[in-house]
Amino acid sequence: MATISGTDIPAVDESSIHTTAPHLVAARKTDFTYYWLLVPIIVLFTIFITLPAIIGFFFSFTNNVGYGAWHFIGLANYKAAFSDPNIRHAYGFTLLFAVTTTILVNIIALALALGLAAKIKWRTTLRGIFFIPMVISGLVIAYVFSTIFNVSVPFIAAKLGISGLETSILANEHWAWTAVVIVSVWQSCPGAIIIYLAGLLTIPTEVYEAASLDGASPWQQFKSITFPLVAGYVVINSVLALKGFLNVYDVIVGTTNGGPGTATQSVAMTIFRGLSSGDYAYQMANAVIFFLVTITLSILQLGFLRRRGVSL
Amino acid sequence: MKAAGLGALATSAPFLTGCGSSSGKTAISLHETKPEVIPYFDDLVAKFNAQSNSVEATHDSTTDPIADFVRNRPPDLFCDNYNLTTSIFVARGVLSDLADAPEAALIDPTVQALVSQYTSYKGQTSALPYSIAAEGVIYNRDHFKTIGINSDADAPKTWTDYVGVCKELQSAKVVPIYSTFLDPWTMQQGIFDYVVGGMIDVADFYQKLVAEGADFNANSPVTFSKDFREPSLRMLELLPFMNDDRSGQAYTTGTPNFAHGTGAMYYQGPWAFSGISATNPKANMGTFPLPVTDNADDTKCRVNLDLACYIPTGTGTAAAAAELMSFLYGDNGATCIKYNKDNLAFAPLKGAPRADDPKVAGLNPYVSAGKFYQGAGTYIPLSIPVGNYIQQFLIDQNVDGFLSKLDADWQRLVVRTAA
Q1: Does residue A150 sit in helix, strand or coil?
Q2: How many CB atoms lie within 10 A of CB A311?
Q3: Phi/psi at B306 (nearest 5 deg)?
Q4: Is the ipTM here above 0.90?
Q5: Is B85 touching A (CB cutoff 8 A)?
Q6: Smallest Cβ distance to A259: which of B93, B248, B388?
Q7: pLDDT tens figures, A130-174
Q8: Contact assignment for B72 to A59 by CB distance below 8 Å
Q9: B66, A66: Cβ pair inside 8 Å?
Q10: Numbers of helices and strands, H then E, in chain B
Q11: Which residue is closest to B389 within chain A, CA to CA?
């Protein structure tokens, strides 16, 4: 290939040709291949994500329900969204949920990854077990946990006489969100564990050997070697996790379905339900606001973590 | 439609067109999604196709009609639940006027009036009722026999009687009212709709409420805080008669429990009977309307237009759809009457025969006399999560919080939608 294409080199390059020229040509050809790898995805992304987003943005200034007659109403949807207690509450709940879950997932996943990276017995089997939640659909997990919370936990609590747990936590306005956090953490840990395991494997074992020769305790090793070296993975995991948890939907639908009352209604749920409740345009305005909130949070998060001397 | 530029992008989907038929017949789709009767309509559609020379119908029981409207490719004929989502179709003028359809003449006017109680479009007849489900208190006849109530006629007729029955059941160590608070809709269509509907004129309340338009405020002639206060307090009076584990029970777990005899009464519609008899074929049940005041004449049952026929505009197949609709009603409504008889529902036709199944016959006198209302919760647009509010209210029992939230939400909604 290289020799055939070598004949196509323009005359102007003759002076500097020698051995480097074929490489240059090869590099240019490869560049082109990369474009071909990207173009289909860019086209698909544009058709299925960007374009609908722009259309949604456009309709957020109208009173459209998705079909039939409609007209422009300016910023009325945005004004109404800002004063809607249900939408505000959804943001409050979603942020609280996403931040709590992100922190818990990262702590637990890092701890589990440390354990699973160590030379322990049945390591492969244990890794397999810890990855199971990853291959189960979120809705299935949510329905199973909802039975645990509604039936099993109250039953066991009543038998053991533990007060406060005899009624389902999902029916408790103030604590239902913690149940959603528990389910989400359980579901999301494997993904984070994989990234942390990959990170831990990049740390050369010699560093630890040297540290133990110097008498460093396991905690000192973790603090001074492991954590700084996987810090980049903490950034990746927390950005991905926060972004994912802000969009929480299926786990809530399967456990509390937004209840009791509207205590666990997430932003994604309010947006999605707009279409069936004839609030398409209104919830599109909400979606635009949500998009800006998510972008802002991600930028802030990256900035904060970068200032801590970590880079992606 | 104004500003068609981006709108056209959203609605045109060239790769989705083309539903021609190879047989030379006009291909149309019937949208019917009521889970319990999908096989029933499969059968009807097959019979229709066998006898029609020009139309080939398919039965669509799964797709989301809203998405089809968004794609500008709505089903050709609906025979589906008439609810607030449908009323958005009506309000946006995407349904055709059926006033001149021959079937329109068959419908009982008091039932036809239910269609326009939510909304109407230029005075048109946007939908024709096909099946009315009447709902009340489903009761376990075996439990009622133990306290001496042996027939529908002996069921309580006033609030005082009703509370008396509840207390007797309690003394007999039976949970009087079985509830499933985990599913907000069960409280909305049950305790909320029954108590409000039994105490106030629901249609009249909402007519006045809607008439206020964007001027609605706390001092309007009708508000939730004023008119729903007494019913809300009454709802709380029913709580002591309910199962203790109600907040952890859902419809899917509660229905089998009730079928096995846990609890004497269940605030559900006839749809629950399929679940009840699937669990316990020997369950011996009946239905009576919930009395909420001490005047027996106030007692009414809740109804909903479980199925109604409507034809979207601009499909180009209106004639074929009308042919299928005529077939679904049958000669003088015969097929419609048979459907309702087979499915424990009431036919919405003039002089229709009574429902004779003992499970629902207790509601007969009320349906025949026009003593019914559409549930108060069903008038509230889906943007207001009224089911969730009712759930919260029945747990925290805060009447003022519940009603002022409804007023505030209604006010915000009318201001927003007036824009």
Answers
A1: helix
A2: 10
A3: -60, -40
A4: no
A5: yes
A6: B388
A7: 899 989 998 999 999 998 998 889 889 888 888 878 888 888 888
A8: no
A9: yes
A10: 19, 9
A11: A261
